[in-house]
Amino acid sequence: MDISKKHGMDYRLLHAVTSGHPWYGEWGYKFGAGSFALTSETYQNAVDMLSSIQLALYFSNRSPIRTPLQNTIALYWALSDRQLVTLRDLFRFIMHLLHQAQKMSKPSTYKRKELASDVLCAWTKDDFDRAEAAMLKVLRVVQTGQWVSWRALRGAASKAVDSQELLDYSLRELGGKQLDDGHFVAVRCNAETSAIEYRLESSSIRSPVNAATFEPSVEHLLHDLRFLYDALLNPESMLSSQPEVVGSSAHSAAAKILDCKQFIKHYDKHALRTPSNPFLLSVRCSIELLDHPKDYTAPPEELVLLPASATLAELKVQASRAFQETYLMFQSFQAEQLPDFPNFSDTTPVKHVLGSGQLVRLRGRCTGDYRRIVQFRMERGLENWTVDCSCGAKDDDGERMLACDVCGVWQHTRCSGISDFEEVPENFICRKCASPRKGKGHGGGGSNGGGRVEVSAAGRCKDEIGSSVGGAGKFGRMATVG
């Protein structure tokens, strides 16, 4: 269950945009189950859609006055050596800068030196000198002490230099340039406009070392990251800043990503194998219950490590212990038989019968009350309910639900038109039961199309789960299953 947050941001949303998968995906975890009947395909489509939105769409209004969002995007366009085209490019670049800022005091020094050799292949020294001279000419003619934005300086110098790429590179290298008259080029980031700005300053006033380069601090980067997250990714705050062409689809995609919290990792037989160790035997064990109850399902296999001298009797003991410690329903399990090796005694060494990493079946019994096997087979216990929600959900998915007081069928509060920020009503009738034609019908859930259902004075469902939270509390009446 991934519900982690960093600096007020849902990391499963941020990391899905930057990397295409949740943070746990770095360790092999993949989509397991989505809330509101979301599937793996739906999740991946939402990730692809949101992360591929073009940044140019946020500049389509052609207004002469830039918004704070446009200024912030433009700042990272200016800082990046490579073109940032999509939301994924933007957030990945900011995360890169953040990691660099946290690790090194001057993260961009090495980067620029590395880039210089590639850039020199495209332009000559005369090209660089011409671009630099054009920008210095602009800075000399402005009023003393006045800052010139990256955008304005780039626009003025473009009259003398055709290549926009050359101008961008020259602007990144302009900070700290020493002039013959004792001045140097200072650079800063305007906190109000998020724009990089330049001006000429005298070396006698302050050191060029302290004013020559602009490296976003960790605090600056975190501030911008949170601002962009709220404006571009957070479904609760994004709509006001989204272009009409992608507004609704971006909101839907972000909400779907947040509705996917459960991720799983599959362990196959190769993952169960341990590195070769001459002093240990690794045996994969599966168990079968003698006289098992109806609808019994065997658990996955477990890996058991044994000394090289272990016997079959020790294998039974250790395998039993492995399942006892893993599953509540098997706390009294005792392995009795090895059905694949019926003619071997318990004193036979395991290495004479099995190779390391081989799978072996064990049969046994659970002593005592067999009801434990049924009761603890699933985290939901013995409770039974019916879920039939308009979103397509047929079982509890961990999201807030409420039951109809007439038919007893559970559905999501959100799908019933009740916001996550609203309290759950004390009494509730689903749309199907409230319909004049089907008011007396039972069974079947409410296919309500997402509209607000009716609240009545009818009594509560007698099968309601979690009666202690059945009132109009913050979490309302929730089905409690694993």
From TrEMBL:
Keywords: Metal-binding, Transcription, Transcription regulation, Zinc, Zinc-finger. It comes from the Eukaryota. The keyword Zinc applies. Residues 388-434 form the Zinc finger PHD-type domain. One of its GO terms (molecular function) is zinc ion binding. SUPFAM superfamilies: FYVE/PHD zinc finger. This is Zinc finger PHD-type domain-containing protein. InterPro entries: MS1-like_ubiquitin, WHD_PTC1, Zinc_finger_PHD-type_CS, Znf_FYVE_PHD, Znf_MS1-like, Znf_PHD, Znf_PHD-finger, Znf_RING/FYVE/PHD. Gene3D superfamilies: Zinc/RING finger domain, C3HC4 (zinc finger) (3.30.40.10).
